[in-house]
Specification:
Strand content: 15-25%
Shape: globular
Largest sheet: 6 strands, mixed
Oligomer: single chain
Number of helices: 11
Number of strands: 11
Structural class: alpha/beta
Order of helices and strands: EHEHEHEEEHEHEHEEHHHHEH
Distance between the termini: 17 Å
Radius of gyration: 19 Å
């Protein structure tokens, strides 16, 4: 018979390949087999997600941890209920230099006085850049940040409107393989932590308390997709053109993150400390305060 309406979930995500496991769970029917109807809607990162969740247009999202820490400071009741992904070793969420500045900006010190694009101001990618600059002896205050959505970064880089950007896949591959941008740091968030847990799946406390079984089934479907993707490395690249702007020819070159549903307070802590250090939160937010872990529900 018809699925109950409560099995419908709208998920809000940025248009990046880091959600390859979500696309796989959708494509492989792992949500459907659990009685879930998942609708994917595209947003400009965690900064746009929180208002969408507050308005109720989106139930679940994937967000960087900094946005969740900021939401916690504002008592918005947004919680990480499962991990999203960790940074791999290869170029994925990367710091790249415009081809117009490639000759002059060859190290972190070259960014002093320059304009750097991040997908949202006073958020995770700006924080990553701050920590990266600090780690390389450059005063982060000497860099001018502007906010640009990921899909708008390639044009800004190729024209030289910005000297550099923290850009995510598939755009990292597009700008470095086809537009002449140079990789300055493959994984600048190593300045926060090695293989940092960057993102988590989020929902409001109230939604989680009334839809815990749905959330548990969602996590189980993602876990299943993570296992499938690990066992079949060619699968996620094969479906990327359907879900993102990446072309079929480019999809095989895209670096995927390390998918995980795990999240611990210890993994949140370096972000919490860095966010307070660079005044993106007023104080160090208790890492455990943003986590409401939902274990996966068994069987399909």
């Amino acid at each position: 018979g018809a699925q109950p309406s409560t099995g419908a979930i709208t998920v809000g995500i940025p248009p990046v390949t880091d959600l390859g496991n979500l696309f796989a769970a959708q494509s492989l029917g792992y949500f459907k087999s659990r009685g879930l109807t998942v609708k994917i809607t595209y947003l400009n990162g965690g900064a746009a997600l929180i208002p969408a969740m507050e308005s109720g247009s989106v139930a679940i999202g994937e967000s960087n941890l900094v946005s969740v820490l900021q939401a916690q400071q504002q008592h918005l009741g947004i919680k990480c209920f499962a991990g999203g992904w960790r940074s791999p070793t290869a170029a994925q969420l990367s710091l790249v230099v415009s081809p117009k500045f490639a000759a002059s900006v060859t190290s972190a010190s070259g960014l002093a006085g320059k304009t750097v694009a991040v997908n949202a101001l006073n958020n995770s990618n700006q924080l990553v850049t701050d920590k990266y600059l600090q780690a390389h002896g450059v005063n982060p205050a000497s860099v001018h940040f502007i906010g640009l959505a990921y899909p708008d970064m390639p044009a800004a880089l190729s024209s030289g409107r910005v000297a550099a950007a923290i850009i995510d896949e598939p755009f990292t591959t597009i700008v470095t393989k086809t537009q002449g941008s140079k990789l300055l740091a493959a994984e600048p968030d190593q300045a926060i932590a090695a293989h940092a847990l960057y993102a988590c799946f989020v929902a409001s406390s109230s939604w989680l308390s009334t839809h815990r079984q749905l959330a548990a089934k969602f996590v189980a479907a993602i876990d299943q997709a993570n296992s499938y993707a690990a066992a079949h490395p060619a699968y996620v690249p094969s479906i990327l053109p359907k879900y993102t702007s990446v072309s079929a020819s480019m999809a095989g070159h895209v670096t995927l993150p390390d998918f995980t549903t795990q999240i611990t307070a210890a993994e949140v802590e370096p972000w919490s400390k860095a966010a307070a250090e660079f005044k993106m939160t007023n104080s160090v937010i208790a890492p455990s305060s943003i986590i409401t872990l939902v274990p996966p529900a068994g069987g399909s």
